[in-house]
Amino acid sequence: MKVLVIEEYLPQEMLGLMWLSRAIKDAGHECKALFLPDKEWVSKLKEYNPDVVAYSMTTGMHLYFADINRKVKEVLPNVISVAGGPHPTFAPEYVETPGMDAICRGEGEVAIVDLLNRLRDGKSINDCENFWIKDRKTGEIHKNPQRPLVQDLDSLGFPDRSIVYDADEIYRNTHRKVFTSQRGCPMPCSFCFHHALKKKVYNARNGEYVRKRSVTHVLEEIKQVRAQYPLKFVHFVDDIFNLRNDWLDEFCERYPKEIGLPFDVILMANMTTEEHIKKLKSAGCVYARVAFEAANDYVRNAVFKKHTTRQQLVEAAGHIKKYGIRLGSLNMLGGPGSTLEDEFETVKLNIECKVDHPLVSIMQPYPSFDINDITREMGYAIAAYDDFPEKFNRTSSILFDNKHEIENLHKLFPMIVRFPSLLKITPWAIKRRWLAKPLLISYMLFSEWMVAEQARIYSSAQGLKGPRYWAITDFTYRLGTKGVLRVYQTVFAKIFERFMAPKARQVKMQLQMGDERVVAHMD
After folding, report:
1. 331-340 burial by CB neighbour count: b if 16+ within 10 A, else e?
2. Could you tell me which residue, 39 or 285, shows the higher pLDDT?
3. Fold exhibited by the domain 2-143
4. Rounded Cα gap, residues 132 and 141, in angstroms
5. Over 61-84, what HEC string results?
6. What is the CA radius of gyration of the chain?
7. Which pLDDT score is estimated for 390?
8. Angle of helix 245-258 versus helix 274-283 axis, rounded to 10
9. Is the CA virtual torsion 22, 24, 30, 35 positive or negative?
10. Domains of the chain, residue spans
11. Is residue 112 a contact partner of residue 56, using CB atoms and an 8 Å limit?
12. Which pLDDT value is given to residue 521?
């Protein structure tokens, strides 16, 4: 069977797609990826002529992919279309979308192989576990249960990076590549998918849900990638890299000897000790992110269910700064029950901790998440799922009376943290609706600067020096390149679309690869 995965360009490699491809190919089937936008995508679709077309989607992108699937069905009416990812998992009624044949809930490696084997052998797929299947003749929806979670992650092999790297050289050629050592998270954070997937989809306990790859398996994967592709920096996207002391000890002892590349991690404040940071520093960690989310205890723990104290956040940040590691923070504005005073306290906590790279998103009450129920119980109205923003850092889907103030504060947030004197004018500025666009521009410019700072640290950790690697040089290049592309696109629209659009897309993607603005809270 031939599978074509149609995916939108994202600012880092898609590990989920890579693991699916590994399972599909190991089972004797074919798998290929097609990234959008691509003005030749329909001709490529016809040329490959797949048996199954698959999509992975988040809430906010589900309508976009529904439209893509309608066009796919016009070209290949007999193809089986399957949707997976967060939106179908938590809103499985998406299978009722015209033209959609099935949705997969949760982990897909074993499930997709079962589906493909049945299709190849001419067997019924109606009772295929993990799937909701729509009968093509009757329209009946077959709602199947979940199969057990994969417990031995090493048994899945290494992610098949070729499916992404062969589809576009942007991903193959970047020196910063994504890795993960675990699946699942033990924390019950109400705004995160983990609690919903664990309890509402799998009804699993932490012992089943939180799984770790062996240190050997992770290191061997990194070695294999380095042998085949450019690799100078390792980006770990584990939700809690310091989840297990024994694992962390082994990793920090072996990594510098066997790999020796700089890397970054996400840490959980209530699990972080000074000894953890000391070991991570000696292993080569140059950047660590800690989830602050909110400074107010009620919002952070009663609403967001973080189970961390303010003191734990301050101490974890202090350890990171003490050992000279770049400190990043993950924050959320617009949570139900929070006031503007609470949001300002979050800004001040970041200032107190001297955060180098403050990342902030706007809270979204996604389907099946506890925060959705909490928001409704508090009496707030929520936008319909079809009206959710495509990206989490654009606007709020909660219909606050002071929505524009939250959105304006979001744009000012990183600049205030780095330049606390701006606090004096912030209460005035966020009330002005007419400042929305100027603040957005300022946010974009300063975000480019923080990314340039980050790139300088990566370069320095690799021993790269000189004017080419200065932050100001990188910032100027980023700004100039994007500015020129935007001018050409605006002034010479037709010529741009015909001759320059593909190259422009490639250049912009190269600049976005690993951009913390667009991957934070999506890791």
Report:
1. bbbbbbbbeb
2. 285
3. Rossmann fold (3.40.50)
4. 7
5. CHHHHHHHHHHHHHHCCCCEEEEE
6. 23
7. 63
8. 20
9. negative
10. 2-143, 184-433
11. no
12. 33
Spatial separation of the C-alpha atoms in residues 295 and 313, rounded to whole Å: 9
- Any alpha helices (H) in 323-435, and if so which ranges? 340-352, 370-377, 403-418, 426-429
Tell me the DSSP string of 190-258.
TTSHHHIIIIIIS---HHHH-EE--HHHHHHHHHHHHHHS--SEEEE--S-TTS-HHHHHHHHHHHHHH
Dihedral pair phi/psi, residue 137, rounded to 5°: -90, -45
Q: Which of 155, 156, 134, 159 is nearest to 144 (CA)?
A: 134
CATH number of 184-433: 3.20.20.70
Parallel, antiparallel, or unpaired for β 141-143 and 131-134? antiparallel
Mean pLDDT, residues 456-477 taken together? 84
**Mapping DSSP to helix (H, G, I), strand (E, B) and coil, where does residue 490 land?**
helix
Predicted model pTM: 0.89
447 within 8 A of 517, measured Cβ to Cβ:
yes
Per-residue pLDDT tens over the stretch 58-85:
988 999 999 999 999 999 999 999 999 9
Note whether 98 and 71 are within 8 A (CB): no
**Cis peptide preceding 37, ω within 30 of 0:** yes
Cα–Cα distance, 323 to 225 (Å, whole number): 29
Q: What is the DSSP string of 166-193?
A: TT-HHHHH-SEEEE--EE--S---TTSH
Q: How far apart are CA 34 and CA 164, in angstroms?
A: 9
